[in-house]
């Protein structure tokens, strides 16, 4: 499918050359949609400070797939820990840079990648879940899934296997590859290892034990299909529309 068809299908025919930000959303017909919720403010030192985005639903809303206790601990403790560590890491980098102290640049760079990855992925994770959301993809997302994976069932089968098969702690990700202009499924180790540059996450599956152990013990193969059952595929489709608008100019 050529980009012209994409743009016509998603209503982006006049979107070429658009700027990033609100222009993308407006041109894509996504005025009420944000790829990420706004969760940053400028600190006293004039630099951005990340904040923990609130859950877009009650913590008990995802039961029985995910218990209120699990969701609360996952969001309020684990996600928050990445936000706090990210801010602390950026403060440390700013202080070291100002002091021309480069001795810890390697460790600080590792911490930046790890905690930023953790914050981004958890933000996408919580915002994509809605037990009352769309149960199947539509529009361009459905067309691309059929082209790139054969069918929705085949995508879910491959995505589930990728998630279950992550070695140790990590994620399975359905992503838009702007270079190949295709959907791909990738795995990450931790939050940041194995990622492909430029790939835009559309759907992320957290398979760190903290995401499921309280409800599923060590039964990751039971957790993943149930999680996919509360994914809002309309949100995934909106992310695709926005990322295509951001990454395709011809
Ligand atoms: Fe997590």
If you had to describe this structure to a student in words, what would you say it looks like?
Among the domains are: 61 residues, Orthogonal Bundle (Helix Hairpins), CATH 1.10.287.990; 109 residues, minor pseudopilin epsh fold (3-Layer(bab) Sandwich). Helices cover 48% and strands 12% of the residues. The protein contains 9 helices and 5 strands. It has a 3-stranded antiparallel β-sheet with strand order 4-3-5. A two-stranded antiparallel sheet has the order 1-2. A hairpin with a 5-residue loop joins strand 1 and strand 2. The two termini are 13 Å apart. The protein binds fe (ii) ion. Fe (ii) ion binds next to helix 3.
In the sheet with the most strands, the strands line up as 4-3-5
At the fold tier of CATH, the topology name of one domain is minor pseudopilin epsh fold
Which homologous superfamily in CATH is the superfamily of one domain? Iron/manganese superoxide dismutase, C-terminal domain
Question: Briefly, what CATH class of one domain?
Answer: Alpha Beta
Distance between the termini: 13 Å
**Structural classification:** mainly alpha
Helix content: 40-55%
What string gives the helices and strands in order? HHEEHHHHEEEHHH
Mean pLDDT: 89
| Beta-strand share of residues | 5-15%
Number of alpha- plus pi-helical segments: 9
Total strands: the figure is: 5
**Which stretches are low in confidence, meaning pLDDT under 50 for 5 or more residues running?**
7-21
CATH architecture of one domain: 3-Layer(bab) Sandwich
How would you sum up the global shape? globular
Largest sheet: 3 strands, antiparallel
Radius of gyration from CA coordinates: 19 Å
């Amino acid at each position: 499918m050529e980009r012209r068809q994409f743009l016509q299908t998603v209503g982006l025919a006049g979107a070429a050359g658009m700027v990033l930000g609100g222009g993308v959303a407006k041109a894509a017909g996504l005025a009420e949609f944000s790829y990420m919720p706004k969760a940053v403010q400028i600190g006293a030192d004039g630099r951005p400070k990340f904040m923990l985005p609130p859950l877009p639903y009650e913590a008990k809303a995802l039961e029985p797939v995910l218990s209120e206790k699990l969701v609360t601990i996952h969001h309020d403790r684990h996600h928050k820990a990445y936000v706090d560590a990210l801010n602390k890491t950026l403060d440390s980098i700013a202080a070291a840079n100002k002091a021309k102290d480069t001795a810890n640049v390697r460790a600080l760079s590792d911490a930046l990648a790890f905690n930023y990855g953790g914050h981004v992925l958890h933000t996408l994770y919580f915002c994509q879940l809605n037990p009352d959301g769309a149960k199947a993809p539509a529009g361009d997302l459905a067309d691309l899934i059929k082209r790139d994976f054969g069918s929705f069932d085949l995508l879910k089968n491959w995505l589930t296997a990728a998630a279950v098969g992550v070695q140790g702690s990590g994620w399975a990700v359905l992503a838009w590859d702007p270079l190949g202009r295709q959907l791909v499924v990738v795995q990450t180790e931790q939050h940041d290892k194995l990622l492909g540059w430029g790939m835009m996450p559309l759907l992320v599956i957290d398979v760190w034990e903290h995401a499921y152990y309280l409800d599923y013990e060590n039964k990751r193969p039971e957790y993943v299909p149930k999680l996919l059952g509360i994914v809002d595929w309309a949100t995934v489709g909106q992310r695709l529309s926005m990322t295509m608008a951001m990454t395709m100019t011809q």
